[in-house]
Amino acid sequence: MSDHVRVTVTCPAGKITGVSDGDVNWFHSVPYSHIPGPFADAERLTHSQVVDATVYRPSTIALSIAAPADARALADLPVVVYIHGGRFEHGTHGDRRAEGGPNAREGIITVHIGYRTKLEGFARFHDDEPDHFRGIDDCQLGLEWVQRNIEAFGGNPTNVTLVGQSAGATVALWLMRRDHYRGAFRRAIALSPCFPRESFERRKGSLRMVLGRPLTRAALTRLAGEKPELLARAYSRFRSIHGLDMALGPTGFDGAELSDMPLLLSSTRDEHYDMPAGRRIDARGWGPAAVRLLARRMGVRGSVADYLRAARAIDPARPMGRLIGDAANRRWVSQAGDEVPGPVWMVEFTAADGPALHCAEISPLFGVEAESPTPVRELLVDFAHGRTPDWPEYERHTGRQAREICLTSGRVDLRQDPLRMVREAFDPEGRA
Fold first, then answer.
1. How much is the pLDDT for 338?
2. Who wins on pLDDT, 425 or 4?
3. Which H, E and C letters describe 390-404, residue by residue?
4. For residue 79, what are the contacts with CB-CB under 8 A and spacing of at least 6?
5. Alpha helical stretches, state H, 249-345
6. β-strand partners of 163
7. Which residues face 403 on adjacent strands?
8. Which of 37, 79, 234, 384 could cross-link with 210 by S-S, CB 3.0 to 4.6 Å?
9. What is the pLDDT of residue 196?
10. For residues 108 and 78, what is the distance between their CA atoms, to the nearest angstrom?
């Protein structure tokens, strides 16, 4: 960054110094909370600070900002807040696939919020409030920081679009719950959300077993300080025990509990289709047998034979790969689409030259490595400006229409009920 110049913004949080390349002002790793301990609730920062935001520090729980270089305070530019994915286990506030340069060049401010992952963010203790997770509460504090400070960077705090992908989409939906929503964003985009099938409370026994000690806040805090490598190994074993699912994360999703606001939901058609375990099973011809054996454990409640038939009709060689993606992501997209009280638009991403995999939509959505506007890119730009999508809402009585966008060709179509096979498999007695 030798050709970059320093730029300082004064806001209620203090003096934040970042760098500018003449088009975009970048502010890296800005602290937004105080965390007293790895398993303690974060606290709001109450004093202004002098912050060197010229360097990205991935190990910190912080946020990053990308703004147009010519943006001035009170310019009322749209704001996109991005929450990264990573199975509730990894990821930071510096996801390059969603870097905010292209947004800034189109007059949109982008904020990436980092949060605690693994046990620090999502283990639960006996004195935690119901449905409370430290990782999600971190994001809540980050959003509140945006509300207090983004005007100084040129953003409009009343025009914030929350965008999350995978685990980040789950966090976004959780923050939309009426018991969590605090008015910090006006609309949301949830890309391939994922929820664990079992609650943390049901998995405490396996975690206690691999830790070999009481599952208390004090015990884990001591372990993190004295023997962090032991804690890391224990978590790795815990994760392997629950390898067919996310090991951690919020559970008990009910779309009817969400606030009434515009929501754009999406999935990729093939999601975790190429996950190594599924790929090996399918390559050996064991896919159909594996689906029959594992479908119930992975959440299928309808006819396994019907699901397998539908999966093989799409790709006869990859039924296990399809089950992994449907169980991890697409079932939740289907449920959210039918349950949320506000207006919802559905998108399915496909590919013309192979499977449309998990995460494939992130860079096109944020305009990274794109030389010209694409239908995927236009989704974010239009929605962030508050424009209503130009295809029908996803509703049962109108046939659950969704937009299909090909990530490779740019082709756009209108599809009828693309998640039907998923809904019939995972919720056979629910929504018709």
1. 96
2. 425
3. CCCCCCHHHCCEEEE
4. 108, 109, 110, 111, 146, 150, 155, 156, 157, 159, 160, 161, 384
5. 276-283, 287-294, 304-314, 319-325, 331-339
6. 82, 189
7. 347, 414
8. 234
9. 97
10. 5
In sequence order, what are the residues at sequence separation of 6 or more whose Cβ sits closer than 8 angstroms to the Cβ of residue 76? 154, 155, 156, 159
* Coil, helix or strand at residue 97: helix
Which residue matches tokens 């910190």? Answer: 60
Cβ-proximal residues to 62 (8 Å cutoff; 6+ apart), any chain:
29, 30, 31, 32, 93, 114
* Residue 120: closest CA among 157, 89, 162: 89
Strands 14-20 and 24-30: antiparallel
Q: What is the CA radius of gyration of the chain?
A: 22
pLDDT tens, position by position, 390-424: 999 999 989 999 999 999 999 999 999 999 999 99
What are the boundaries of each domain within the chain? Answer: 5-426
**Helical spans, DSSP H, in 166-303:** 167-176, 200-211, 217-226, 228-241, 276-283, 287-294
DSSP string, 317-328: T-HHHHHHHIII
- Specify the amino acid at residue 244: L
How confident is the model over 15-34, as pLDDT tens digits?
A: 999 999 999 999 999 999 99
Can you give the pLDDT at residue 320? 97
- Say what the pTM is: 0.97
pLDDT at 243: 87
Among 365, 427, 375, 415, residue whose Cα is nearest residue 108: 365
Distance of CA 228 to the CA centre of its chain: 27
Whose CA is closest to 95, among 77, 111, 76? 111
- Going by CATH, does the domain composed of 5-426 fall within 3.30.70.20? no
